[in-house]
Amino acid sequence: MSNLIATLRPASPAEYPTIELIAHATWPSAYGGILSPEQIDYMLAMMYTSEAITSQVASGQSFNVLETMDMKLLEKQIVGYVSQELDYQPGTTKIHKLYALPGVQGRGYGRLMVDHVTAFARAAGQQKLRLDVNYKNRAIGFYEKLGFGKIERFNADIGNGYMMEDWVMELSL
């Protein structure tokens, strides 16, 4: 039996810097073989400041932090986060962000976060979950294993000469 208990709970504005730190710790391993270091830095600066997260929340996203509790040490630690938006399109909840620290990946936390958003979306009467994932990201297999299917390729100019080149993936609820 594991000594760790994991829970998801709404992030408070005081935790936005923690989300930023997790993004900075996670992105180099998630995207290092896909994007240039300059593009990673650009995107982190664009999406992961307290001000940027506050703006994302104001536009409809909600952030949840993944917190583990070590029952032996009685210590809590935030090790990941997920953000979602109800009715991104009518009847569709979008997962905007889903990351766990590299050191805790492979322990079922990604599935836990997707399951949390799935329950949240179903309770709100949504019919689909949607997400965008870089077309070279190894997480595609993870999402397919959870039942997401590729819908279309989507490229977006994000400024400074950079593109986001993604698969749009959906899961029927």
Provide an overview of this structure:
With 173 residues, this protein is an alpha+beta fold. It has a single domain (4-172), classed as Gcn5-related N-acetyltransferase (GNAT) (Aminopeptidase). It is built from five helices and seven strands; from the N terminus they run βαααβββαβαββ. It has helices spanning 16-31, 37-47, 50-58, 109-123, 139-145; strands at residues 4-10, 62-70, 75-89, 92-100, 128-134, 149-159, 162-172. The relative contact order is 0.15. The model has no long low-confidence stretch (mean pLDDT 94).
Write the layout of secondary structure elements.
Elements: E1 4-10, H1 16-31, H2 37-47, H3 50-58, E2 62-70, E3 75-89, E4 92-100, H4 109-123, E5 128-134, H5 139-145, E6 149-159, E7 162-172
Parallel strand pairs: 4-5
Antiparallel strand pairs: 1-2, 2-3, 3-4, 5-7, 6-7
Summarize the structure.
The chain has five helices and seven strands; from the N terminus they run E-H-H-H-E-E-E-H-E-H-E-E. With 173 residues, the protein is α+β, with helices and mostly antiparallel strands.
CATH topology: Aminopeptidase
Instruction: Say which CATH homologous superfamily is assigned.
Output: Gcn5-related N-acetyltransferase (GNAT)
Number of helices: 5
CATH A-level architecture:
3-Layer(aba) Sandwich
Written as H for each helix and E for each strand, in order along the chain, the element string is: EHHHEEEHEHEE
Top-tier CATH class:
Alpha Beta
Question: Which band does the percent of strand residues land in?
Answer: 35-45%
Spatial strand arrangement across the major sheet: 1-2-3-4-5-7-6
Which runs of at least 5 residues are low in confidence (pLDDT < 50)? none
- Overall SS class: alpha+beta
Binned, the helix content reads 25-40%
